[in-house]
């Protein structure tokens, strides 16, 4: 009998929760939803992750590791639809996805919606956890009479900032795109400009504005939201957000630290098939002194034009510090790849720098004693992983909610210094702005120079790093919240079983 039956072992029915997790098809979203799924499995929940073949490849090794530890977690693969003109294997949104294929991938995702809903019906979970980009899933959960939890991207601060802008429209009260305005109603005084806002918030509503409204409406109808954060970092904004939204919410982070506690987990996180050379970069790091290496990465969704790559390269070379630069995959034909190969050859000869093309074993690199600071796009996964590794940040936001994350890092918790990027852009566009080598160099010099302000920043991030470890231990803030949530979900399941028993008796 399934978990909603009234026959058989009711004790087993009510003590084991069955959950389905549905991640979105971009790497950063995929990783954070899968890591949350793994946390629930660590705490006795029977977890199934639904995804497509190419997306499963990015995390399946981690799931196999967890299964070998007797955790009840598995992947259910759904073939990606055969959309005319879409080559097999193109199922994910990242910097390497050709622009002309994006509409076809979205079309495939739309076709999958009915299959996902049918799987929910067949699997009969006690609750579902889905990415924010599946707002329709709240109605699917309601149809089944089960809770839906939404995995929110980014920080509590970012969501609170969006709420402030939607409620008060401070950007409409300034005369230019570069004039600063205060974000009203927040616990801290934070200023931004119109140029730093996402286009869907900046002026006239666009298609994405309406999608974000659907996402917010679906969150309000959900049982609650899960954030990859922890109370000691964002407790003020967690409370602010819950009050502003009128919803339940749980910070269960740092999720990566919680589920990736040994080297094998850290090494296989992400596209392990691309990471066969990770031992080489770690050996290179072993030859460097403590806190001497700068780690530079802009995430899986970014690409730069050659003009910007040249400025970054010169800034790194001129800084006098050793560095690792994750350049990703550079498109041929624009000159960027040729330039970087020459640059790589030069810094290799001097043993000054290490370029990673494609996937990087980021967790292992950040935790290496030789790494002293990070240049980041302010993607929330990287911010959390850097805090855990006790590393200060040079912030270089690009798109999504990254400018809001920068404000949290620089102005609120004060563990970073801005490179000076002024304008938000879409993830699949280059944008017009080119950050000059001098500005990049100033940020690097501040972080790596050892001045009084830099040392104070390092002390602050060290305190937060200690708090990350405590948050996931027994009686820690995130541990306690997760256990309370699981007990709530068990209680809902038990009530349902008891109601069915009473109906059967009647």
From TrEMBL:
| Alphabetized UniProt keyword annotations | Glycosyltransferase, Nucleotide-binding, Transferase
EC class = transferase
Coiled-coil residue windows: none
Which Gene Ontology MF annotations are present?
Answer: nucleotide binding; UDP-glucosyltransferase activity
The Glycosyltransferase N-terminal domain covers 20-255
Gene3D superfamilies attached to this UniProt entry: Glycogen Phosphorylase B
What residues bind UDP, as annotated?
A: 28, 269, 300, 359-360, 381-382, 385
Tagged with keyword Nucleotide-binding: yes
Asked whether the keyword Transmembrane is assigned, the reply is: no
Its EC number is 2.4.1.-
- Which family does the similarity line name? Belongs to the UDP-glycosyltransferase family.
Protein name, per record: Glycosyltransferase
List the top taxonomic levels of the source: Eukaryota, Viridiplantae, Streptophyta, Embryophyta, Tracheophyta
